Amino acid sequence: MNLKQRIEKLKINIPAIFLALGKKETPVLAKILAWMTVAYALSPIDLIPDFIPVLGYLDDLLILPILVTLTIKLIPKDVFAQCLEQSKNIWKEEKTSKWYFAIGIAFMWILIFMMILKLFFLKA
């Protein structure tokens, strides 16, 4: 499987993992790991920043697929198969216009910006 195919698979698996969070059949441990996986996938903050050559993208190429694989193994097969089928149709439909999903990420960036300002400019 080449890199492009793996990325396409992640585009389907991550929404499927998110959908599995809402299923009551999903075990608690799988839900915790699923939250971590989805949060890491959507987070603008990486373990290793992307501007560092090679290493910056290495964490995205290793950590995210490992989290996805572990999460999928903890979700019951029938539940994940159902969520996978639903997630395949997510991208075929019209793009969602639910702008309020970005509030959490925007809030995180505002907090980081405020902490940097306080650290460097508002020393009292």
Question: How would you characterize this protein structure?
Answer:
This protein is mostly helical and 124 residues long. The protein has 5 helices and no strands. It has helices at residues 3-21, 28-42, 55-74, 77-90, 103-120. α1 (3-21) packs across α3, α1 crosses α4 and α2 (28-42) packs antiparallel against α3. The chain is globular and about 55 Å long.
- Give the SSE order as H and E letters: HHHHH
- Coarse shape: globular
**pLDDT below 50 for ≥5 consecutive residues: which ranges?**
none
Average pLDDT number: 81
Please give the radius of gyration in angstroms.
Answer: 17 Å
Offer a few descriptive terms.
124 residues; mainly alpha; 0% strand
